[in-house]
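so my prof wants the structure for this chain in the tokens format not the other one, which i didnt know existed until like an hour ago. anyway here's the sequence
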Amino acid sequence: MGIIAEFKKFSVRGNVIDMAVGIIIGGAFGKIVTSLVNDVIMPPIGMLLGNVDFSKLAVTIKEKTAAAEAVTLRYGAFINTVLDFLIVAFAIFFVIRLINRLKKAEEAPPATTKECPRCFSAIPLKAMRCPNCTSELQAG
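here's what i got, hopefully its the right format
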């Protein structure tokens, strides 16, 4: 099999296409979350803390010189990135939780017992007589 044919077979498989769609949607979702953190969540928090712009918070290790840029630890940007991560992780947690619940609902095991019409106890499906009240039962 040629490399082109092998690549074509690989690329049209359902899992690869699903993965590509997930990556594209995930990237777009990441941009939305970044905007949410930077443009909606952090400005009010900064205002409450005395008009602090978190994206500009930094500690200067070495001042700017004519030959080199300043060396800074941008901890404000780090705080924004941590919030981005926490929001994305929380959203993914809920999506996975929902998927797992849907899978559990689909995987309900088939019934192995039925209810006796006289004493309402659980008995095997194939039973012809209830072991508790000895009533005769219809097959099935």
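also thought this was worth mentioning. Residues 126 and 140 are 6 Å apart (CA to CA).
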